[in-house]
Amino acid sequence: MYDGGKVVLGLALFAALCTSPMWVSAARGGGGAEAPELELPPPASGKCVRDGAWMRNSHMELLNSWRDEVVREGIRRERLADGREIERSLTQTCLGCHTDKTQFCDRCHDYVGVKPFCFDCHVDKAGG
Amino acid sequence: MKIVISLAAVLALFLLAWLGVGVLDLKTLFGTVLPYVALALFVGGVVYRVVRWAAVPVPFRIPTTCGQQRSLPWIKQSRLENPHTGLEAFLRMVLEVLCFRSLLRNTKAEVRPGGRLIQGSSKWLWAGALAFHWCFLVVLVRHLRFFIEPVPGCVQLVASLDGFLQVGVPAMTVTSLVLFGALLFLLLRRLVTAQVRYISLPADYFPLFLLLSIVATGLLLRHVVRTDLSAVKEVAMGLVTFSPATGEGAHWLFYAHLFFVSVLLAYFPFSKLMHMGGVFLSPTRNLAINNRAARHINPWDYPVKVHTYEEYEEEFREKLKTAGVPLEKE
Question: ipTM of the assembly?
Answer without folding.
Answer: 0.90
